[in-house]
Amino acid sequence: MQSEPDHSQDIKTAMETLGMNQPRLAEELGVDQGTVSKWINGKANPSGPVLKLVGRLLADHAASEAAQ
After folding, report:
1. What is the CA angle 42-4-14, rounded to 5?
2. Given this model, what pLDDT does residue 2 score?
3. The pLDDT value given to residue 41
């Protein structure tokens, strides 16, 4: 059986790119700050829909940056 990929670095990179702290990212994603902390510390992984939402936030950010 294959283990789940660790998305902790992906979440950290997304937060840095978006200029968000844990509480802000949690608010944007509709999750608890403790959940974001678990993702960052590798104690849990975000679900597929949450990863898609992070991708959408990053895409919106990139589009906003490109428009400036």
Report:
1. 50
2. 62
3. 96
- Which of 49, 44, 46, 55 lies closest to 18, judged by CA? 55
H-only helix segments in 1-68: 8-18, 22-29, 33-40, 48-67
User: pLDDT by residue (tens digit) across 16-61?
Assistant: 999 999 999 999 999 999 999 999 999 999 999 999 999 999 999 9
Nearest Cα residue to 26 out of 42, 38, 9, 41: 38
CB–CB of 61/18 below 8 Å?
yes
Helix (H, G, I), strand (E, B) or coil at 3: coil
User: Which residue type, as a one-letter code, is found at position 48?
Assistant: G
Of the candidates 31, 10, 38, 33, which has an alpha carbon nearest to the alpha carbon of residue 23? 33
8 A C-beta contact, residue 46 and residue 10? no
SS3 state of residue 13 = helix
